[in-house]
Design brief:
Helix content: 40-55%
Shape: globular
Order of helices and strands: EHEHHEHH
Strand content: 5-15%
CATH architecture: 3-Layer(aba) Sandwich
CATH class: Alpha Beta
Structural class: mainly alpha
Strand order of the largest sheet: 2-1-3
Distance between the termini: 49 Å
Oligomer: single chain
CATH topology: Rossmann fold
Length: 145
């Protein structure tokens, strides 16, 4: 996904894959099921996923997750390669005709704001979408105590 756009698919959903192909495949399965249940064809989509990003995310997780013996060091971790990688994928999907972008991997949303800068199409934020759905369903947060 790093070169020029070979394919152009107008009005497509752009999908940036993440650390695991599982979340991406799960998203695609739900997307196709949802559309087929409604009696419609699956909307066009472009998928951009690579092993380099997966490796960068695994390094990030190892450096930011505390264990029994170490403290989290995410503040010392250079996020620049991850943000640059995600930004290249975003640009590739925009050039390919995507009209919105999604990131099924929850970890990628840590850099949502960074990669959204300069984007010509909306990048859906998983947390904001869930919060909106909960609000529309009139679900209230649980109170503890």
């Amino acid at each position: 996904c790093s070169g020029g756009s070979v394919l152009y698919q107008a009005n497509a959903i752009g999908i940036i894959g993440g650390a695991s192909i599982d979340s991406t495949l799960n998203f695609l399965q739900r997307l196709t099921q949802w559309r087929s249940e409604a009696g419609k064809d699956c909307p066009p989509f472009l998928l951009c996923s690579d092993t380099q990003l997966r490796e960068e995310l695994l390094v990030y997780e190892r450096n930011s997750s505390p264990s029994l013996y170490t403290q989290a060091t995410s503040s010392h971790f250079d996020h620049t390669p991850i943000v640059e990688n995600l930004s290249r994928k975003r640009e590739y999907l925009e050039r390919g005709g995507s009209r919105c972008l999604v990131m099924p991997c929850h970890l990628l949303h840590l850099w949502h704001e960074d990669i959204s800068n300069g984007c010509s199409v909306p990048i859906l934020h998983m947390g904001e979408c869930v919060a909106k759905e909960l609000k529309e369903a009139k679900l209230k947060p649980l109170e503890t105590g």
